[in-house]
Amino acid sequence: MPYLTKLFFVSLFILTLVGCDISKQKSENRPNIIFIMADDHAYQAISCYGDSLNSTPNIDKLARSGLRFNKSFCTNSICAPSRAVILTGTYSHINGHIDNYTTFDGSQLTFPKLLQKAGYQTAMVGKWHLKSDPTGFDYWNILPGQGQYYNPDFIENGVKKRIPGYVTDITTDIALEWINKRDEEKPFCLLLHHKAPHRNWMPAPEYLSKYDSIQFQIPRTFFDDYSTRGYAAREQKMELGRHMMMAYDLKVPDYHGDNNSGLESWKFIFDRMDSVQQDFWNQAYFYKNKAMIDANLSAEDLKKWKYQRYMQDYLSCIASVDDNIGRVIEYLEERGLVENTIIVYTSDQGFYLGEHGWFDKRFMYEQSLRMPLIISYPKNIVASGVNENLVLNLDFAPTFLDYAGVEIPERMQGKSLRNILESNPNNSWRDAVYYRYYEYPGPHSVKRHYGIRTNRYKLIHFYYDEDYWELYDLVVDPDEVNNIYENEEYLELIQVLKLRLYELQNDYLDTEEDRFLPAGNIEVDHIAWGCPVKLKYPNNKKYTGGSKNALTDGRKLSDSGNYSHDFSVWQGFEGDDLEAVIDFNKETVITSISCGFLQNRSSWIFRPDKVSFYVSENGIDYSLLEEVKANISAKSTDVKRINVSVETEQMKVRYIKVLASNMGICPDWHIGKGKKAWLFVDEIEVN
Ligand code: SGN
Ligand code: CA
Fold this sequence. Notes:
This protein is of the alpha+beta class. Among the domains are: about 5-205 and about 320-415, Alkaline Phosphatase, subunit A, CATH 3.40.720; about 520-685, Jelly Rolls (Sandwich), CATH 2.60.120. The protein contains 15 helices and 25 strands. Strands 7-6-5-4-8-1-9-10-2-11 form a ten-stranded mixed β-sheet, sandwiched between helices. Strands 18, 20, 21, 22, 23, 24 and 25 form a seven-stranded antiparallel β-sheet that branches. A hairpin with a 2-residue loop joins β14 and β15. The longest helix is centred in the middle third of the chain and has 36 residues, at about 300-335. The protein binds 2-deoxy-6-O-sulfo-2-(sulfoamino)-alpha-D-glucopyranose (SGN) and calcium ion. The site of calcium ion (CA) has 6 residues, from loops.
């Protein structure tokens, strides 16, 4: 072999050896990561957070071995968006996953992908909820959609199968089995995401009676009357009193005083159980339900009773989550893995446990904005710490990459928590967090808003169909019942906060308020421009999109035909028809009338069955020009604007009447069955 070639092979051999050494050393030094996330687990329901509602010994133990964050927040308080923020380290407007309807674009950069590339073994087990298949994982085994509590289906690397048992236990079984089978030479990153304690809060068989003898203290703001606050707080649909369902949520299928009890949904879930599971349920609930029905409670007492049942079920679900965290810790302890494993416990967002009379989340108020967050990593993090920095779910991805020695991509908008975790003095931490919520119209009707939270203040702007602000001083008013935005004393503070808010929007590249509203409002020339419109049924306050004249204000939406879930100046009618009369004030020659409607079934908005166009000379006698049937089914899952129009020979009229029929109530096949359906109307144009 010539000398040079020989030298080449020898060097290659040495390089390979060194290379092996480096990667082995790397794997020994780099921490494992177990990211445990529950769904809708409120910090109020974790004992180390101090509300003494329940006891969570295993989560508390984790907190004793690491750092507990008191000011950890999400950037958009809802499930799938929060998960997308966590995976990508970017805000919703960057990763595109603004609400639960969106399908996650799995081709974008995520921390599991980067860890995988850096030699980590990666797995995702449990609730995923992002619609597209997981990417960046060697192994995934996920619940379809929201998942089921009993005998859940799991999709394992694309193959679906039903697994008997209780979801929280099964999720942990699968996760531990995966850790067991891993290659011990390489570090691993496991995402272990529980379904519990998500609605409808179904405890495991062993905990069905766990809290039967406990009376939970009603929260201070349970009977909040929302005075001082705007429409959003008043018009949400997440009140225990009015919106919690007797059968589906509270497991009293025999109660007759609730005509929206979710009975069908409850039956569907109950049928899923096997007869042994059903027996457990019947034995646990029959007598306590009967006692409640026989007591014939007043409205106020019923609301209080609902709170007790809600807490019993919700906290029992958490008891299983806590047990299963105990199993994970024990597993790691037995194998000497605790020292070099970063264990995170968090929830995709916060949750209301009766505060303001609510359940669910979405609002920028504290209980839903705040996420519990505990991080343990005995090798580097001092035990039993409590931290008050303003941290975000946006920070998780950079933190994991930092610890794994992977460069944090520029696209990521969060900050690594490493300095905080390792108690390094850090003066440059953020002074404020930026928040934005989009899913409206949508379940629970929480209006679109964005805002800023500093250590002391919170400023929120409700937009889209509203335009008002709220301001809270969290030191004086931690319950956020006293909106002080209108108080003149705070004018200067408001200016400062607004400036900081706009700065944050600039920094995070979120400067367009209309970005996720319909694109392209264009001016059109039509003769009904500015004419008065009389509506027989008022357009509902919630979705007026301006005055009723906006029905003829000369603007229309671009006709791309496809609106996903963006809306703009629609006029919304809840349960009512559109009956609009336009008065030209004088005889006018017309040749066509047209009108736009929205079909968005998942937001309970249906196109009208039919639209009738009438004309009149005196405003009393109308003649029918034409009746147009909708050419798309109310069942269609497309989200789109539908244009309905009528053409005529030139004709002189003074009045025009447009009648579009709302289907009234949501039909049987729809999730909103029996509740009022929406009709959304955009622009009556006359030429
Ligand atoms: C379901 C629930 C809602 C909940 C959303 C979002 N209704 O629609 O109460 O707000 O999920 O939750 S249910 O009747 O299906 O239980 S999230 O955590 O996935 O964002
Ligand atoms: Ca959730």
